[in-house]
Structures are given as structure tokens and as C-alpha cells.
Amino acid sequence: MHVSNLILPLLTLSVTTTAVSALHITPQHKKALAAQKISEPAKREGVLAAAHKNKVKRLVKKKKRQSCQVRYNATSIVTSSTAEETASTTSIVGDDASAIPTLTNNENWANATATQTSSSVYETASTTADDWGFSSASSSSSPQPSSTTSAETSQSTSSWSKVEEWSGNSFFDNVNFWEWNDPTHGTVDFLGASDAWNSGLISINSNKRAVMAVDTTQVVSGGRKSIRIHGNRVFTGGLVLMDAYHMPDGCGTWPAWWQNGPNWPEGGEIDILEGVNAFTQNQVSLHTGQGCTMPSDLNSNQVGSLTTGSYNSYDCSSTNTANQGCGVRDETTQNAYGSGFNSIGGGVYAMRWSKAGIAVWFFPRSNIPSDITNDSPDPSSWGKAMANFPSDNCDPYQFFYDHYNIFDTTLCGDWAGADGVWNYAGYAGQDQSCAAKTGYSTCADYVLNSGSSFADAYWEVSYVKYFNSTTEV
Ligand SMILES: *[C@@H]1O[C@H](CO)[C@@H](O)[C@H](O)[C@H]1NC(C)=O
Ligand SMILES: *[C@@H]1O[C@H](CO)[C@@H](O)[C@H](O)[C@H]1NC(C)=O
Ligand SMILES: *[C@@H]1O[C@H](CO)[C@@H](O)[C@H](O)[C@H]1NC(C)=O
């Protein structure tokens, strides 16, 4: 419908115009690209994969977990357990923005236990969390972490109290694993929890940091194994800190640490740390329903700059801008992304979602404020944010709600793998094109045949911490 119609001309542009145009369109419209209908080969591949896995029930219920990039044709969701073949087919191919199903139970959107009983449509599901879809990395059936539920350290001026922490051995207890096709069409094979552990792609290292890696087998077919995790709790408002020592980097990679709400784009999307290939600059983006706009003086109150696209950059609405949204790229801060980030042992990203609006800061390892290390964060002392989206014309609780946190490393796909991006140089801090750097003319060929190149494509995360406030939120 309207979204798709707007998107299609852009898709055409992105593959037929010069690299410059395509590049400037593609990052802006990466989510739009993801919203396009799956191609015929992809459909067939998806259907075959589904038949092979024989996880029809998961696929039917996959609708429940649609992210911004995943739309399912609600009318194709089959309610009868006898129609498994149809269900597996239509729920995969029904990737059309015209029929985004309405989820009435947003609070339980990321909660397997609750969703189990929230809709009669899903009554054919078995009662285990695994069959419901997501697999849990821990043997515990509780979606809640067993510890770290309150802030023990709070004597500073911070008005924020810790409400959740993912760290150490329990890091993966707080997440679910996405083990279906990549909604952004990457050359990846996302693993479920047990496969992720067994293959060694996730681990807790000797420094008690969570590692999420990419398979380095030299030659693979179909897709390279990787990880995508979703937090199992939803939040509305709050302050989230993420401390990483390393992030995926290099040609072919498209890593992101981000948040998403239900009924996309109505529940909003906040991309906190994201980029592709050998970029060295981070881009923070908002994608919203209609009505959220940014003031004309936006750039004077942030370190980064609003990217310019084919549509009004100040309008964050996905519908009005063919999913361009409001993107802020930071060309100034050193070592905030990719190889630079890794060279300094990373640092802390912070995202504050409060009455004042949504803002993102980055602190390199050597310059992490003591209020952060003391678990008593005080954003008012942090100085100018990398990206600072004020609430003036964008109510942060109208346009954003019920978000869960996501880490993923996809490879190629709609952004990293787009021809114009793969072949382009001189953008977001990347001087040489990946085609030139790798000698491969396509991203997918490189990813499938050059596993050793992906040794650096891993996240090494010390913690994710959520804080809440009775005065700021
Ligand atoms: C949704 O799926 C149904 C059943 O497969 C199909 O008849 C209908 O055309 C689809 N709608 C759209 C908009 O794709
Ligand atoms: C999940 O849903 C159950 C049942 O409604 C509820 O008791 C539990 O607190 C929820 N867990 C989370 C993490 O929201
Ligand atoms: C903060 O508290 C509000 C109100 O209880 C809740 O809706 C929100 O999800 C909380 N956010 C976090 C990060 O805990």
C-alpha cells in the first residue's frame, strides 16, 4: 500500500543510478528496502527452509514478533493446525506493509509466557517456550533475571535507578534468539540459543563479557551463521547504557544495537549504534508514525548532523518519508564506530528516553564518566549528545512505546550489500569501497567465500543496564 508504493521507485533508483545516488539513498532508506516484498527466489528459499525445519507453528506465530522490518499479511495467518503447508508458505511470503496486524497486547509482545495465552489464534501452539518461537539461552524458564533487580548504589545526584542489568554469566538469560530469515535480507543464518552456544558463536569470555560472533568457516553456502538477540522485556522510557569492548567491523558487516516497538512504525524505532562495512562513523536514527518532527535548529544542539535524504529530513515519519526517518550521523567523534571503536577498547553508549526527548551519547573507554561506572548516571553532566531529538514536536511517549532491545550482526542485506554501497568509497569515514578492498564484486560472494575475514565481526559486551526515573521519564 502507501509505504510500498513510495518505496518501489527508491528501490529502482538504488540499483540503477550511480553509486553516489544509491549510497545516499540506501542508508536513508535501509528500512524501506527491508519493507519491500520478498523476491521470488527468496520466497522459494524461505519456503524450502521452512519445510526443512518443519517449524510451521513457529512461522505462524512469527507474526507476533514482527519487527520494523518484518510485516506479515495478517489475513494469511492460518488458524487451523491442519493447514500447516499453507501456513508455512503464507506466513513467510506475506511480507507486505499493507496488512500489518494489530497486536492488542503490546505489553506481552516480547513475553513468550504471556503470549502463549493471549490470543486464540495461537491455540495450536505447544506450551514450551521453544515451540512458541524464541529459544532461551538459559535453562531457566523465567524471563526475568534472577538478580540485579534494584539499584544498590544510589547516593549521588542521579535521579535514575537501575532496574535491569545484563552482564556476566547471566547476560543471555535476558534475551531471546531470532532464528528465522533475516528481515533485512542479509546473507546470514541466525542461530537459536542452543546452536549459538554449541557452535561457540556466543560465549561469556574470561573477562565475563558476552561475545556474539560470526562463523569463520571459510566457505559456506546460503548464509553465514550469526546472532540476533531481542531483550525479553519491554520498556517505555528510561536510560539504557551499553558497554562494549568490541563491535563487528569490516566489509560485509551490518551490526546494530537498537530498540523497537510494536505495530511498527507506530511503536517507534530507535537505532542507537549502527553502520555498515568499513564505516567509522555511527548513525543514530528514529523511525516513527506520522506526526513526529524535529526542530530546524536540531544540529546546533547535538554533535552529529541530520543526514539529508530524498525527503524532509526533519520528519521522522516512516510513511511520510518512505522510511527515511530522522538519521543523525556523527562525523566528529573519533572512534565511535567500527575499527576505531575497537582500537580503543570501545566504550559506553547511552540512550536517554525521557520527557525531554531521545538522546544518545558515546563515551570512549578512556573517558567514561564516573557516574556511569558508579551506576548513578547523570545525563545532565554529560555535555552535548551525539544525537539529541527533543520532544517539542515529537511526544516521546506517543511515538515510542514498549521497546525491546536488540543486538544483531547481519551480513550484506539491504544496506551493507546494496550494489551502490558495496562499490562506493568516501562515505561515513570509509575511504575505499568494499569491492576494491576485498576484490569481490558482490558482498554476498565475499561473505560466502571468505570466512576468515569475519574474525573481527563480533560483539564483546560488558553490560546492558536499564535505569528508570520517577522525575525524568
Ligand atoms: C494476504 O494473503 C491472502 C491469503 O494468502 C491473499 O489473498 C491476499 O491477497 C494477501 N494480501 C496482500 C495485501 O498481499
Ligand atoms: C510475562 O507474562 C507473565 C504472564 O502475564 C507475567 O507474569 C510476567 O511478569 C511477564 N514477564 C515479563 C518479563 O514481562
Ligand atoms: C519506567 O517506569 C515506567 C512506569 O512504571 C515503565 O512504564 C517503564 O517501562 C519503565 N522503564 C524502565 C526502563 O524501567
UniProtKB/TrEMBL annotation:
SUPFAM superfamilies: Concanavalin A-like lectins/glucanases
Signal peptide: 1-22
Pfam families named in the record: GH16_XgeA
Record's compositionally biased regions (Low complexity): 135-160
Region (Disordered): 132-160
Domain GH16 span(s) in chain numbering: 137-424
Alphabetically ordered keywords of this record: Signal
Name of the protein described by the UniProt record: GH16 domain-containing protein
